[in-house]
Amino acid sequence: MAVDYILETEGLTKEFRGFIAVNDVSLKIRRGSIHALIGPNGAGKTTCFNLLTKFLTPSRGRIAYNGRDITTMKPADVARLGLVRSFQISAVFGHLTVLENVRVALQRQRGGSFDFWRSERVLDAYNDRARELIGAVGLEGFEATHAAELSYGRKRALEIATTLALEPEMMLLDEPTAGMTHEDVGRISQLIKRVAANRTVLMVEHNLSVVSDLSDTITVLARGEILAEGDYANVSRNPQVVEAYMGSGHA
Question: Which superfamily is assigned to 83-167 in CATH?
């Protein structure tokens, strides 16, 4: 039986005025897996992520999602297909409550551009689903808390809830545990594991213990190229990978 790949790239390349940030990257992301993109600073991870989510246009190469060529599509159109990105910098509305943030995301998924002006009665129809999502990310009891008052880790959990509101088939997580306390890292790791139960996750992540705990497959980038790929045990023993990390000041 053929392996089912949800996202594939072929010869993906991005040049910036002669500097090649991503060079001939061919990825295959297996449906239903957690796939990590790692590498030392300057490896091209974020550029690669921006290409996959269409925030950058490739210089060369192609991207296919669910067998459909999305190379020239706009970010919003790709998101509507079910490929949704959660940003490295928490993207929630600080002046809104947790419930209101998730409700806004549910409205966006429905596609109504003027729902901000709808009656409270109409908006209340979103509350049940919003509370389900809030529960799914472990934020029960925080529904009435303003997002600005949440800890950093809980803000990231809220951001994942708003991403889930868009009903993605595949989630791209950009540094989901960056800047977190040890306790928050554990909480977010468990959350990623839960949300990956019925969808595909691709994440850029610096925390190698999170990568080893969560990932089915790891792709290592260095200087914009794929250096190694496989499970954590094989990748972590690869001499080129060890050299790339040690040479860049990483443990």
Answer: P-loop containing nucleotide triphosphate hydrolases (3.40.50.300)
Amino acid at site 147: A
Q: Count of residues for the chain?
A: 251
Q: Which CATH number fits domain 1-80+174-179+200-251: 3.90.650.10, 3.40.50.410, 3.40.50.300, 3.40.50.720?
A: 3.40.50.300
CA 87 → CA 111, 132, 160, distances in Å? 21, 22, 9
Distances (CA, A) of 120 to 18, 111, 123, 143: 54, 18, 5, 16
| CA–CA separation, 18 and 20 (whole Å) | 6
Q: What is the pTM of this model?
A: 0.87
Give the pLDDT confidence of 173-228 residue by residue, as tens digits. 988 888 888 888 998 999 999 889 889 999 999 888 999 999 999 999 999 999 99
